[in-house]
Specification:
By secondary structure, this protein is an all-alpha fold. About 5% of the residues are buried.
């Protein structure tokens, strides 16, 4: 899941669109590695979890 669907944010500006771009960039990086799909998705989650958690908390 990318953008607004994965990151509950206030609908102002282009938060969801910006996050979707950052999500897609990280997904591309992990899928470019020699990993299984499961490993790549786990790596993606680890990379994005803390930054997204911080954004979501700041939007509350």
């Amino acid at each position: 899941m990318l953008g607004d669907a994965a990151h509950p944010m206030y609908p102002i500006g282009s938060n969801g669109a910006s996050q979707a771009i950052l999500d897609a960039e990280e997904l591309g990086k992990v899928f470019d590695q020699d990993l299984t799909v499961e490993e790549a998705l786990k790596a993606y989650e680890e990379i994005r979890r803390i930054p997204i958690t911080n954004i979501v908390k700041s939007n509350r």
